[in-house]
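ok so for the tutorial part 2 we go from a plain amino acid sequence to predicted structure tokens. step 1 is just haveing the sequence, like this:
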Amino acid sequence: MAIILSPLIPGVINRTKALFAGRKGQPIFQVYYDLWKLAGKGAVYSRTTSWIFRAGPITGLSSVLIALTLIPFGGVRALIAFNGDIILFAYILGLGRVFTILAALDTGSSFEGMGASREAQFSTLAEVTLFLGLSAVVIKTGTFSISGISRALSLDTWTGSLAVLVLAGISILAVFLAENCRIPVDDPNTHLELTMIHEVMVLDHGGPDLALILYAGTLKLWVLGALMAGIILPVLSSNYWTNILMTSAFLFILSISVGIIESTMARLRLRRIPQLLIGASATAVIALALALR
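step 2 — the prediction. this is what the tokens look like for a chain of 293 residues:
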């Protein structure tokens, strides 16, 4: 499902923002059109770049596809599931981020180097928040596997650990926004190099390479959204299709929520972003403290 439907998530976000702005907005399938157009173009490479620049988009997409195999969906066990897969999940996404940063640095552009520096700083804080939030959930469910967490969570678990799971969910939502370069951390629609983070790192990519980056971004939205669904949404039904519909509805509501967030608040100043992520880490620490009681 994710392979085909993930480009719908940014489509829903953009339509929500258009409705709030009183505009017609882009078609909900606009990302599909963009991917098709970019895939049909050629790629231009600077003589100053090396194989690292070309490996960046491929590694970024590959890392997200591997992360996708670790995430359950609708209560169905992930393709790859084992104790400790949470660690692999976090660091496989980190691998894709590292190659994106290296590809940006490989261009020799001062603007892309600036964006890479910001990405490295903010992703470090987001990674801590992710681990702390998931640690609280691990303690409450007694399993160190993402699929195990999804199966262990039920309505009884939620009622008995409401504060822990809500606080952990809030901290992971902050990670979701930061990792996917959404407002208030980053603005995916900005074209001002001095304020961009992710977008400035991919300025020199074009054609199929840019299509890989764009598609990897939609898959990352799906992957982290499905992770949140597995924690926040207790699957109550024994019916497979009902669970799939419930999780899909959660992703749809999450996409609308992101659109509302981006329509009702401005992007934070760069010096405020670490404060946001540290605040999310503090929220996760409180959840962890409550879980250890």
